[in-house]
Amino acid sequence: MFERRKRYSTESVSVQAELDEALAYLEGLGAKRDKAMKRILGGIGTAARSQVRKAYKSHGLAKGTGALYKSISRRVIRSGKAVIVEAKASSDKTKVFYGYALAKGARITAKDGGWLTFQKDGKWVRVHSAKLPERDFVAAPVKKYLSTTAFKTKLDQLVQREVARIEKEGTR
Fold first, then answer.
1. Confidence check: pLDDT of 157 > 50
2. How far apart are CA 84 and CA 91, in angstroms?
């Protein structure tokens, strides 16, 4: 299963049927299912992460070199049954993750009745609270990628790589 989560989010995307068929084929050739699945999910996650990075600016996020952009990552979970693509940028001082707030939208309020000061359209603005609009910059590109032929081609390449690995181990 391919799973994409963001902090405190339960939304996921599944491609279990395609993987089950490929893994059954690899098992028939003598592959260890868990290791093959982890390698395949890792490859799919890397490709999905690249799609999120490509679509980053089209979601109204301007700086393609900042902390949020750099925090876009993928990781295969320990059980090896899912890969997570996420953007968890955090403030170094506060350790508050703001990737989720940007993706799902949030209301930000100044501490102790103070002011939030930021630049909007070239003018400085002072407000007590501000609403961040929802920008689905992680899930939308991943879902779009999983419905393309590029995904199916990538899955075929990863399966072929596993077949080559099995054949190489068989000749030893």
1. yes
2. 21
Q: How far is CA 72 from CA 4, 10, 138, in A?
A: 12, 18, 8
Range of the domain at 91: 16-104+135-170
Q: Is residue 145 part of a domain?
A: yes
Q: Is 51 exposed, middle or buried (0-12, 13-18, 19+ CB in 10 A)?
A: buried
- The candidate with the shortest Cα–Cα distance to 43, out of 76, 79, 13, 81, is 76
Does any domain span residue 81?
yes
pTM over the 0.90 mark: no
Mean of pLDDT values over 130-157: 89
Residue 125: inside a domain, yes or no? Answer: no
**Range of 70-74, 93-97, 99-103 with top mean pLDDT:** 70-74
Residue 47 lies in a domain: yes
Q: Where are the beta strands (DSSP E) in 46-170?
A: 72-76, 83-87, 106-109, 116-120, 123-127, 129-132
User: Which two structure tokens, joined as six digits, stand for 91?
Assistant: 């403030």
Residue 64 — very low, low, confident or very high, per pLDDT cuts 50/70/90?
Answer: low
Give how many domains the chain has, as a whole number.
Answer: 1
Q: How many helices (H) and strands (E) does the chain have?
A: 6, 6
Q: At what angle do helices 16-28 and 33-55 cross, to 10 degrees?
A: 140
Query: Running DSSP on this structure, what letter comes out for residue 128?
Result: S
